[in-house]
């Protein structure tokens, strides 16, 4: 099945010479959730704005379900829903009217049943006759999603959708995204919250300084690049790592009771057996042993750090 969104060598250079996008190429499959990670100024919003027709590319090509975003703009844009970073809503308008109006902008006929369906899915039906100014920040975010969904797009862009909301609401938003995926919507999510990508994404893309560093299955990425740590808890604290353990390059925790050993799970030998033998030979008594997988955040920081150097 062909990709629903295809980006080929997309470049954006502003008048002053700043390159916001440097030859980005990407294919996004139908029904997947792609999390696009990157620091401020990395090019995430520029990429989304270009695909959505808000910004004009300097060069390159983008097709949405086979429709070119330049030569077949209307057909391409009708397939896209966009939830921007900034909440931009008419404060004195009612929720239901705000969402209904967005559907009309795409030339769709009035469909009160569709409006109700979207509002119910986003837990907004009870607020349908409330003015926007009466809503909390989290509810306003939901209205933004409703506006983006009401014309039945096949691709939904969420640009920092949970920025500034509390943890509970963020998890609610994750559930909403999962429901939209189950309904067949393809979702591209930009976020600063690494745990967001880790929780809901199928694939992860890392962008920095206008370049797409990688796009990979989340689980594969963590398996390929993640490191594991063996944490050895001692029955009694020590002041320093014994000389006999120096070859293992251990780290001693500030409490003096935990030795941390980092290893590669894909190496021919992890060195754990030798470490355990040497710990016993050094006269140290174990209380507990546990392992810890490196997080997506650590992998992301490592990737961007390598690019910077």
Automatic annotation (TrEMBL):
PROSITE patterns to which the protein is assigned, alphabetical: ABC_TRANSPORTER_1, ABC_TRANSPORTER_2
UniProt cross-references to Gene3D superfamilies, sorted A to Z: P-loop containing nucleotide triphosphate hydrolases
UniProt keyword tRNA processing present: no
Annotated ABC transporter domain residues: 5-234
GO molecular function: ATP binding; ATP hydrolysis activity
Keywords: ATP-binding, Nucleotide-binding, Transport
Name this polypeptide is given: ABC-2 type transport system ATP-binding protein
Source organism of this protein record: Jhaorihella thermophila
Lineage, uppermost ranks: Bacteria, Pseudomonadati, Pseudomonadota, Alphaproteobacteria, Rhodobacterales
């Amino acid at each position: 099945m062909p990709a629903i969104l295809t980006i080929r060598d997309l470049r954006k250079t502003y008048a002053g010479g700043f390159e916001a996008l440097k030859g980005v190429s990407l294919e996004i499959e139908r029904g997947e959730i792609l999390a696009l990670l990157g620091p401020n100024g990395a090019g995430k919003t520029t990429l989304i704005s270009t695909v959505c027709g808000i910004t004009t590319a300097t060069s390159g090509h983008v097709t949405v379900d086979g429709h070119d975003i330049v030569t077949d703009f209307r057909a391409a844009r009708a397939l896209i829903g966009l939830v921007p970073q900034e909440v931009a809503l008419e404060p004195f308008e009612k929720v239901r009217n705000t969402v209904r109006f967005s559907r009309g902008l795409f030339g769709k006929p009035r469909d009160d049943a569709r409006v109700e369906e979207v509002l119910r899915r986003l837990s907004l039906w009870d607020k349908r006759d409330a003015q926007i100014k009466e809503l909390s920040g989290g509810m306003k975010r939901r209205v933004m999603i409703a506006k983006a969904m009401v014309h039945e797009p096949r691709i939904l862009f969420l640009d920092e959708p949970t920025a500034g909301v509390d943890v509970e609401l963020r998890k609610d938003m994750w559930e909403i995204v999962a429901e939209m995926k189950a309904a067949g919507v393809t979702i591209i999510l930009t976020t600063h919250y690494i745990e967001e990508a880790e929780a809901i994404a199928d694939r992860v893309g890392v962008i920095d300084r206008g370049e797409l560093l990688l796009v990979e299955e989340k689980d594969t990425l963590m398996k390929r690049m993640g490191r594991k740590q063996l944490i050895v808890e001692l029955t009694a604290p020590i002041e320093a790592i014994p000389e006999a353990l120096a070859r293992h390059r251990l780290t001693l925790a500030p409490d003096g009771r935990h030795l941390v050993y980092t290893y590669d799970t894909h190496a021919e030998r992890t060195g754990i057996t030798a470490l355990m033998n040497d710990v016993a030979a050094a006269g140290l008594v174990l209380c507990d042993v546990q392992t810890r997988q490196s997080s997506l955040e650590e992998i992301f920081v490592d990737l961007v750090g390598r690019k910077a150097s």
